[in-house]
Design a protein that fits this description.
By secondary structure, the protein is an alpha+beta fold. The chain contains nine helices and 14 strands. Bound molecules: biotinyl-5-AMP. The site of biotinyl-5-AMP has 27 residues, from helix 5, strand 5, strand 8 and strand 9.
Length: 319
């Protein structure tokens, strides 16, 4: 009912809606309306209530409530079911447990703050309250675990596209899981999965984006979209764009394979053509990043002219 009430006010942004009008439109009593308005107030919505005129929605909170996101969403799978938390340890852990107990493909866990936000290899992901987007998408792709790295690259393409769509910035992908603006990290992806030898059971795409995060809350070399764009970015609209891009690109991979996404990845990459150092399990490889392969591996041309493929690891851009 709260969602329906908000919808009515959305249609009348600056006008008052009388108790009688709302009561007729939604077929509920005046006292029920008052209770719902009080509930919305407790969630941070600010209403003016004037005798004889009715209610007016003065301010919506900057929150990622499902009823701020769902009405805008044009997806069939991703984000159709949104599980919202004010505070969690890690959205990836919550999503992983849900997927283990049978949650459907497309279910998303989203939070305003994480107390144990994670990067790869148990690194910490700074997740201050209401400043960023922290979410995890459950997917059940029909693929072998060896192909799963492709899903991280698909998520990176979707993320760079969604950021560009919402802010006047040039977001680029640094292989494998970073999004950079002006050379600084603005978002990261943590892909986790449960698999058997020949098939993925489920995969969790964990995505963290710094939207309005202050420099003091970020490690060195990181930034936020608002800092780089110099303009306000609404988190619900960014999430909507991300879900829609993810769905489009995910369906495209299933229909046509990795090739179309791979081409888009090349366009959005800051990695190719650069001298890089890839480190994986204490082994370092240095050379020029020349391409990504059909399985998501990064192809590096060594100084001796040979090529090496790197499947996972950390990358430093040298020049
Ligand atoms: C990542 O790991 O970049 C993956 C980040 C994924 C975060 C999301 S939030 C929702 C979901 N739930 C989770 O618990 N996680 C996912 P990695 O490439 O390993 O980078 C981690 C490194 O990035 C850290 O060691 C820091 O140096 C740096 N870092 C930490 N917090 C950051 C932030 N907010 N912005 C930019 N860099 C950060």
């Amino acid at each position: 009912m709260e969602e329906k009430i908000l919808k009515l006010f959305k249609k009348k942004p600056d006008n008052y809606l009388s108790g009688e009008q709302i009561s007729k439109l939604l077929n509920i009593t005046r006292s029920a309306i008052w209770k719902h308005i009080e509930k919305l107030r407790a969630l941070g919505y600010e209403f003016d209530a004037v005798p004889h005129l009715g209610y007016r929605l003065r301010k919506r909170p900057d929150k990622l409530y499902p009823f701020e996101i769902s009405p805008m969403l044009k997806t069939r799978i991703i984000g159709k079911e949104l599980i919202y938390h004010d505070i969690v340890g890690s959205t990836n852990t919550v999503a992983y447990n849900l997927a283990k107990s049978g949650a459907k493909e497309g279910v998303v866990v989203i939070a305003e703050k994480q107390t144990k936000g994670r990067g790869r290899l148990s690194r910490a992901w700074s997740s201050p309250k209401e400043k960023g987007v922290y979410l995890s998408v459950i997917l059940r792709p029909k693929m072998t675990p060896f192909k799963a790295p492709v899903m991280t690259l698909m998520a990176a393409v979707s993320l760079a596209q969604a950021i560009r769509e919402n802010a006047d910035v040039r977001a680029f992908i640094k292989w494998p899981n970073d999004i950079l603006i002006n050379g600084k990290k603005v978002a990261g992806i943590l892909t986790e999965m449960e698999a058997e030898a020949d098939s993925v059971k489920f995969l969790i795409l964990g995505i963290g984006i710094n939207v309005a995060t202050k420099d003091s809350e970020l490690p060195r070399g990181a930034t936020s979209i608002m800092r780089e764009a110099g303009d306000f970015v609404a988190r619900p609209t960014l999430v909507k764009a991300l879900f829609e891009r993810l769905e489009r690109n995910y369906l495209l991979i299933q229909k046509e394979g990795f090739l179309p996404i791979r081409m888009e990845w090349r366009n959005l990459s800051v990695t190719l053509g650069r001298r890089v150092r890839a480190t994986c399990m204490r082994k370092a490889i240095e050379g020029e990043a020349v391409d990504i392969d059909s399985d998501g591996a990064l192809k590096i041309r060594l100084d001796n002219g040979f090529y090496e493929r790197v499947m996972a690891g950390d990358l430093a851009l040298l020049r």
